[in-house]
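Now for a concrete sample entry.
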Amino acid sequence: MHFMNALQAAWQSRNSLLCVGLDPDPARIPAHLQGRPDAIFEFCKGIVDATADLVCSFKPQIAYFAARRAEDQLEALIDHIHERHPGTPVILDAKRGDIGSTATQYAVEAFERYRADAITVNPYMGRDSVEPYLEYPDKGVILLCRTSNPGGSDLQFLDVKGGERLFERVARLVAGEWNASGNCGLVVGATFPAEIARVRSIVGDMPLLVPGIGAQGGDIAETVQAGATAAGTGLMINSSRAILYAGKDEDYAEAARRAALETRDAINECR
């Protein structure tokens, strides 16, 4: 299924704009899983199975797997999501950014090795660094635009021409000539609701991946008011640590479900 079709279906069938980020920190995995060779997979699988009916997408962060030589567990996790929870989009959070043959290999890694439905990409090397991902028209390409970290302003807020800021230029490019297959989205941080609203005004109904609620302090109501489309969708509002580590013991998955349900409902109250 085309990523955008799957996302639209998940928004409707799950009544959810919540994306759960899968950032498994071995130091915070419950004690009963510690020491297992597949601990990262088992921990994430528990989260996924407990929350899949509450989310519009999952977003595994590749660094948390690769740093522990757990790429095989990432492959197994994405396979598990596809097999046990079909129709749930998986966004590989890799923030890749390179050109030519290297970018081509990154695209193969994301879409053929890991079988992700979408990938996050850094657009700041220009269109040729994004083209290899766009050559997979059924896959989502979600480009960094206005990121949630404070240092994002160092570059993204620069005036590039006549009062147009760099993140606005990125939004225009992606929504226009880069989006020929209709498979692009943008990353805009919840910590900057005014910029979310500005990006929404530029890109129309294009999906926005919005990190920054929960542990990073972004406000849910401001995020929804700034970024939801007229249909009340258009957002993948990501929460990672606040859901993953809601519990510390063997009932961690149940605690994660409660946190996900509370977050989803809080988002829906603002739609």
User: Anything to note?
Assistant: The chain has a mean pLDDT of 95. The first strand starts at residue 18 and ends at 22. Strands lie at 18-22, 57-60, 91-96, 118-121, 140-146, 159-161, 164-165, 184-188, 208-210, 235-239.
